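Quick log. Single chain, no ligands specified.
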Amino acid sequence: MPAQDVTTKPTDKMWDDVQRLADEVELQIHLAGMEARDQWRVLEPRLATMKKTLASAGERASKAISDEVAEIAATLRRLRDDVRKPKQ
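-> predicted structure:
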């Protein structure tokens, strides 16, 4: 396997996870409160920007891109968990 394949695989998997989380959150967001909707409105443009960045960077994905993908994923997980919490 060429070295470039090894360096892009983790980023590809991370992005796939981010996309899956984003899809899940987007489906659940209509049931969420206003705070969750506000968080989604902030996060959604970051997803679009990162998708474009990854598409243009391709195999040259850097540590900064990987770090941003990881941060978006963490934010999505927190939002997903907040949305899933039962209303009290």
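Residues 3-84 form one domain.
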